[in-house]
Amino acid sequence: VADTQYGLYVWPCAVVLAQFLWAHRDALPGKRVLEVGAGAGLPGVLAARCGAEVILSDGEELPRCLRHCRRSCRLNGLPHLPVLGLTWGRLAPPLLTLPPLDIILGSDVFFDPKDFEDILTTVYYLLEKNPHAEFWTTYQVRSADWSIEALLCKWKLRATHVPLHSFKADKEHLAGSSLPGRHTIEMMIISLATREGT
């Protein structure tokens, strides 16, 4: 039975997002990256190993997940990688004092519909502060009734679908898992609907 602190596992969405990062590894050196809802931190750790300046974050109310994320950094030779407690939808000092960002990562953060608006509120805030940044996110399709389309419009955000085959992530061994549930994975890049200078 999976622990209720879901961030203790590497879920299929993290593997697919890591594959996207690996496919774009030449563009990562020097990029400033924040992973939200990092859990075990696979995408952020990979981005750091590829030369990005990475900050990992998960909910400040999830100390076990934060400890697990720090342990993952140490095990991957990145003991000084910052891991912050950052709760979606809350304007707290860790969010307000973040340095400039180029990329925001989030794997399987659209897990529970009650969190969708808090996630997009946080993403919107970060994109407003960093208008040329993008939110790269993978999600598992769990219900046809769950959608963020109305929230994207509300927060003036635009989503671009990224086909998994375009970065060779449409293979069963990448998105497969022994964990429960369907494993249909999708990827999208979210940005401000109107960016300055575009």
How many structural domains does the protein architecture include?
1
CATH topology: Rossmann fold
Overall CATH architecture: 3-Layer(aba) Sandwich
If you compute it from the alpha carbons, what radius of gyration comes out, rounded to the nearest whole angstrom?
16 Å
Helix content bin: 25-40%
Low-confidence stretches: none
User: Helix tally?
Assistant: 7
Largest sheet: spatial strand order? 3-2-1-4-5-7-6
SSE pattern, N- to C-terminal: HEHEHEHEHEHEHE
CATH superfamily (homologous) name: Vaccinia Virus protein VP39
Determine the structural class based on helices, strands and strand pairing.
alpha/beta
Question: How does the overall form come out from the CA principal axes?
Answer: globular
CATH class, please?
A: Alpha Beta
How many extended strands? 7
Give a short account of the largest sheet. Answer: 7 strands, mixed
- Cα distance spanning the termini: 48 Å
What percent strand?
A: 15-25%
- Mean pLDDT value: 88
Give the oligomeric state.
single chain
Transmembrane segments: 6-23
Keywords: Membrane, Methyltransferase, S-adenosyl-L-methionine, Transferase, Transmembrane, Transmembrane helix
Family: Belongs to the methyltransferase superfamily. METTL23 family.
Protein name: MET23 protein
Brief write-up:
It comes from Geococcyx californianus (Greater roadrunner). This protein has 198 residues and is an alpha/beta fold.
Description:
With 198 residues, the chain is of the alpha/beta class. It has one domain: Vaccinia Virus protein VP39 (Rossmann fold, 3-Layer(aba) Sandwich). The protein is built from seven helices and seven strands. Strands 3-2-1-4-5-7-6 form a seven-stranded mixed sheet. Strand 4, helix 5 and strand 5 form a beta-alpha-beta unit. Helix 1 packs parallel to helix 2. The longest helix is centred in the middle third of the chain and has 14 residues. The protein is globular and about 40 Å long. The chain starts with 11 loop residues before the first helix and ends in a 6-residue tail after the last strand. The model has no long low-confidence stretch (mean pLDDT 88).
